[in-house]
Amino acid sequence: MPLPAGTRAERIFPRHGTESGPVTLTQRRVYILPTRQGLLFAATLALLLIGSINYNLSLGYVLTFLLAGLGIVAMLHTWRNLANLVVRRGRVNPVFAGEHAIFEVALENRAGFERWAIGIERSTWPATFTNLAPANAESLPLTVATERRGWIELGRFRVFSSFPLGLFQAWSNVALDERCLVYPRPEAGEPPLPPVSSTAGDGGAHGRGAEDFAGLREYHPGDSLRHVAWKAFARGDQLLTKQFSGRSGTEFWLDWKLLPHEFSVEQKLSRLARWILTAESEGINYGLRLPTRELAPGGGALHRDACLEALALFEPQVAA
Length: 320
Known about the structure:
5-stranded antiparallel β-sheet; alpha+beta; 26% helix; 320 residues; single chain; 4-stranded antiparallel β-sheet
């Protein structure tokens, strides 16, 4: 729960703003408090001490102070396990609205000792843990639910550890300048693509499937599965891709003006997102026309991502 501004708790555990570069958890940024088990342990020590005083038990004193010393050493190791740990941004891939954005947070151990059971968590999502060897780094995922398109921030998360005995928990709050691009949610179903426009060349002027078969070539990752020669593969040949001639003669324009007028802005973006995925899966060159932006026809993963990014960052107030 957020701390009210100016409260004593905020002065004890000050909040840090969003930070872009690697964050080092210095001594002043690592806080430590006893856990529930630690409080029970302290209560047990108090009872042992009271019993030893009442009955003048020498062995009781020995046991009480031995356990107290063990608790103090455990507290030191818990704090040391997190102190001077380096936290930095990792990789994050775009997702569609309604999916979960997976942010990677890199933890780097620059110390000469191993760090055990380092965890990170955000909101109500389950925490993830890792062990860090000396001079080693590890990336942990943080999951954030998405509801709408555009940029979504990672926000504040917690790095913590209860190693070695679970009597104390050390933690530090971190807010990295890390964000994920959220594409519009593609429309359900398979709405038909807009009509094909003709350009100079020998390709067909309307419809799909007018290209002539030109042979086979070796399969490359990213080739459309619709063009894979499955019959040849079933005969025991290697995975091959069909080549067609005349593809440059046809292009699709995914035009904002072709969408139904009764659609809302988000419905139009959803339809365009579905068209982009369909055209890309079928290996069709396509361009994108928005009220304020136009992307020339092309194909491939980079072109697909550029078109989806344009949809994700589209400003509704400028739509016609």
